[in-house]
Write a structure and sequence with these properties.
Blueprint: H1 3-21, H2 30-34, H3 43-59, H4 66-79, E1 86-88, H5 90-101, E2 103-106, E3 109-114, E4 117-123, H6 128-131, E5 139-143, E6 146-147, H7 153-158, E7 167-174, E8 178-185, E9 187-190, E10 194-199, E11 203-208, H8 215-228, E12 235-239, H9 248-258, E13 263-269, E14 276-279, E15 291-295, H10 302-312, E16 317-320, E17 328-334, E18 340-349, E19 365-366, H11 414-441
Length: 442
């Protein structure tokens, strides 16, 4: 066995024997300290690992770099634990950190590899790509004069990123206009996670696509902007459909914004450092204003934390489908070589003690996806007749106009329509309750 293999065997032996024989660390939870220690690996077990390593180096059909084999071994060790633990090389680890901060340096496109081609899937606005007229479905043929065809496509995608102010020239194939070259100057791009629409001039619709570190502050600033415009919201829809989660703290902060007290979420893991309880601080956004949360089977992790917290505290009505059921916490741990690992270290629990894992959040009002069909009813009403008499101005209760000018999203989205109907109903019931209280006082 050569010097490299001897060194690898020594490293493996020291790692596994230390991990198997040292006593439980001080920060481990009591249940971990009481559990029997894992059986240590024998020297023969470690020799098996190095035997496989040697066989691949010697006999695989093509030469394989030792570092590549070691990275593959680490990746396999983590991926075999659960679907969410993973080993990330340096560039992947950096990209994850950028996404969590809500910013990255590049041209502002999301791309995918389709049929061995780099295809633009979405363009962030504003961004250099947006200003250059790049659109979804465009194909990137070359980067700085180097054709993409025949190259490692992952490496080519990485070349789209770079320092702000640096230039990159792309050859683009557009389905409608053919091939062209564009020169772009990379910049620092903000990844949008929040969008807002005002429905019927009274109801706020917030769409959160994922949770990054700025999501909660963006939400609060939007509320402040609406209030500064003199708009008094009468209800809020928070759309978490297809939101895979992201950073936990913004979801906790959002729940805190709608709660005045109480537990938001707890996490439980083997280490005491993962025995956490997040609680709401005094102060509440829009107290008394009804909130509806939309979820579906694509709502996961931090989305489920937010929905579960407001549901358990009866602060929001959750409607839609059963959520994804990702109730585990991943800690992101940097390594000395610039790479990092995502390691599952705990489980989430809602304020009432429910585990989200493999269960998800059950909606208060279950909905199934429904395709919107335009009303083709040809029956006429009095108002459709020519020369009909106009209604007299009488003192009648206010009626919400369901045919008023709404955002385009309402015309195609059954979930949002149902949420809006529930908010209208909550408003009407609130007015009726207030009227009854006033009569009792009289």
């Amino acid at each position: 066995m050569d010097q490299t293999m001897n060194r690898l065997l020594a490293i493996c032996f020291s790692i596994f024997t230390l991990g198997a024989t040292q006593p439980a660390l001080a920060f481990q939870a009591e249940e971990s300290e009481k559990s029997p220690p894992a059986a240590g690996l024998s020297l023969d077990d470690l020799r098996t690992f190095t035997d496989v390593f040697t066989q691949i180096r010697s006999n695989y059909v093509e030469p394989v770099d030792d570092k590549r084999l070691l990275n593959a071994a680490i990746s396999g060790m983590l991926s075999d634990l659960d679907p969410h633990s993973a080993y990330m090389l340096e560039d992947e680890f950096q990209a994850l950190d950028e996404n969590s901060r809500g910013r990255f340096d590049g041209i502002g496109v999301n791309v995918g590899i389709v049929d061995r081609r780099i295809v633009v899937q979405a363009v962030i606005s504003p961004s250099p790509a947006d200003e250059a007229g790049i659109n979804p479905r465009d194909v990137i043929l070359s980067i700085d004069g180097r054709p993409v065809r025949g190259r490692n496509l992952r490496d080519a995608v990485d070349e789209l990123r770079g320092e702000p102010g640096s230039e990159v020239t792309l050859e683009i194939l557009s389905p409608d206009s053919g091939t062209r070259k564009v020169k772009l100057v990379r910049s620092s791009i903000e990844i949008p996670s929040l969008s807002f629409d005002l429905l019927e001039d009274q109801y706020g619709y917030f769409r959160i696509s994922h949770f990054n570190r700025e999501s909660a502050s963006h939400f609060e600033r939007t509320l402040e902007s609406v209030a500064a415009d003199g708009i008094e919201l009468k209800g809020i829809i928070i759309d978490l459909r297809d939101n895979p989660g992201g950073v936990l703290q913004p979801a906790v902060d959002l729940a805190d914004g709608f709660l005045n007290e109480g537990v938001i979420v707890t996490t439980r893991g083997r280490n005491r450092s993962m025995q956490l309880e997040f609680t709401a601080r005094p102060g509440e956004w829009l107290p008394g204003i009804p909130v509806v949360i939309l979820i579906d089977r694509g709502s996961a992790s931090a989305s489920e934390v937010l929905a579960g917290a407001l549901q358990d505290h009866d602060r929001a009505l959750v409607i839609g489908e059963q959520s994804f059921g990702k109730g585990s916490v991943q800690s992101v741990l940097p390594l000395r070589n610039g790479a990092g690992i995502k390691l599952t270290t705990a489980r989430y629990y809602t304020p009432s003690g429910r585990s989200i894992q493999a269960e998800g959040i059950a909606p208060d009002v279950a909905l199934k996806p429904v395709r919107y069909i335009e009303d083709t009813d040809n029956r006429v009403r009095e108002t459709d007749l020519d020369r009909h008499l106009e209604r007299e101005n009488t003192n009648v209760p206010e009626v919400v106009d369901t045919d008023s000018d709404m955002s385009q999203i309402l015309k195609d989205d059954y979930y949002v329509q149902e949420a809006l109907s529930l908010l209208r109903g909550a408003r009407i019931l609130s007015r009726a309750s207030t009227s009854q209280d006033d009569r009792k006082m009289e």
